[in-house]
Specification:
The chain is mainly α and about 425 residues long. About 70% of the residues lie in helices and about 0% in strands.
């Protein structure tokens, strides 16, 4: 998206954009909630209703293999439609809006990828939905070019705030994205992002009225209550560095490896997607056979499994989950499925934190999770400030004590991602 500040708006025009952004937030929040409910509906149908109707206590191995393959076939179909299924998950989050007809294929690809078990998150489809809603609103109101671009960004703010805990983390996420990708000149950055910040606030007001729709609360990134952590301990700060380093290297390595694999492959997209779906299903089946744990822990983006992961006491199970989830994440990215990179990265960070608390002497669970989560989020998007803020919000009552550890973890995860990407660039 080109810079919104090409021709500065007059004060009157800017106030009009603010008013439009405020009005845009509520309908975008409803659309976002509808998308999350639709993903939940597909997930429930494929992984609960059909197995229950068949009389299975858990899906048989062949079914776990077939469902992600069906997802691959549907995404391959979406790639042939206008819009080509939206932006590929293997790249960074895109700030380019899709035309309304192209959004249809992006929503279809996102529903198939996320609902049928691939290891990706909902933030990319939600971002595409908000950007396109802003594009439509700008055209309907015949806004001039500079104003229209601000309205597009406002739609993005409103949609992404529904899963990242409200206006503050979503504003910081898009602030860092806009700065990193030079979407807005540095001198105009604050003024350009205020309409989006306002839209995310009005979206949050509406979202509180629809967050009881099926699947909506489950899709929002949040942690169950963690053990009390009254004060920062020196040993926890020391252990936070290796925990964050491992989490950052795993997330960045999965993303970098997926990017290289997607660039080098010569397979037709349909074969690559179906093969990728089969591989992810096989990882889930193998994990269940080895650990006797449900396939859901490997499949999906992972936010609904965080409670189970935090309660795991076997280091062997956690190691197996870490390997299977990281490979499933890399395969889902490389194969061309549609979704976002952040949610699985957060889950991987939490898994590393749980493992650290189990095997590192003197390390408590709460600071270990804070370090791993912050590193995973920062490494996924290479946005260190966002990683720390997201962690602080997810930690709830323990945020005040764990903020220093979250900051350390986020910076270490970001540095790990920068190192991995620099090495990949040299290659």
């Amino acid at each position: 998206m080109s810079t919104p500040a090409a021709s500065p708006l007059s004060p009157r025009e800017y106030l009009r954009v603010l008013a439009i952004a405020a009005l845009l937030g509520p309908p975008v929040a409803i659309l976002a909630a509808g998308l999350m409910a639709a993903i939940h509906g597909v997930t429930t149908l494929a992984w609960t209703d059909i197995p229950d109707a068949a009389g299975w206590s858990s899906p048989p191995a062949w079914y776990v293999l077939v469902v992600p393959v069906v997802g691959g076939a549907i995404v391959a179909l979406a790639l042939r439609m206008p819009g080509h299924g939206g932006h590929s998950a293997v790249g960074d989050l895109s700030m380019e809006p899709l035309p309304p007809l192209g959004l249809v294929s992006a929503m279809l690809a996102g529903l198939a990828s996320l609902g049928l078990g691939l290891v990706l998150g909902p933030e990319a489809p939600l971002l595409a939905l908000g950007l396109t809603a802003g594009l439509v609103a700008g055209k309907a109101l015949r806004a001039e070019e500079s104003a229209a671009k601000l309205i597009v960004m406002a739609g993005a703010f409103a949609s992404i705030s529904t899963v990242f805990g409200g206006p503050l983390p979503s504003a910081l996420l898009l602030f860092e994205l806009a700065a990193a990708h030079a979407v807005v000149p540095a001198a105009a950055l604050g003024r350009a992002l205020v309409p989006g910040f306002l839209a995310s606030g009005t979206a949050a007001l509406m979202f509180t009225g629809v967050d009881d729709w099926p699947g909506v609360k489950e899709t929002v990134l949040s942690l169950p209550p963690l053990p009390d952590y009254p004060t920062v301990q020196g040993v926890d700060v020391a252990w936070a560095v290796p925990v964050a380093l491992v989490a950052g290297l795993i997330v960045a390595g999965a993303r970098s490896g997926a990017r290289r694999a997607s660039e080098r492959t010569t397979l037709p997209p349909a074969l690559l997607l179906c093969g990728g779906g089969l591989a992810v299903g096989a990882l889930a089946v193998a994990f269940r056979e080895i650990t006797s744990q449900p396939v859901d822990l490997v499949l999906f983006s992972g936010e609904t499994s965080l409670g189970t992961i935090l309660g795991e006491t076997s280091a062997g199970v956690v190691v197996a989950l870490l390997i299977a989830k990281a490979l499933g994440y890399a395969i889902s990215l490389a194969a061309g499925f549609r979704g976002g990179p952040t949610f699985p990265a957060v889950t991987l960070g939490v898994i590393v934190g749980v493992l650290g608390a189990l095997v590192l002497p003197g390390l408590d669970l709460t600071p270990a999770v804070a370090a791993g989560l912050a590193a995973g989020a920062a490494a996924a998007l290479r946005l260190p400030i966002f990683g720390a803020l997201l962690t602080a919000l997810m930690m709830g009552s323990g945020a005040a004590q764990t903020v220093p550890i979250a900051v350390v973890g986020s910076v270490v995860g970001w540095l790990a991602a920068e190192a991995v990407n620099a090495r990949a660039s040299r290659r």
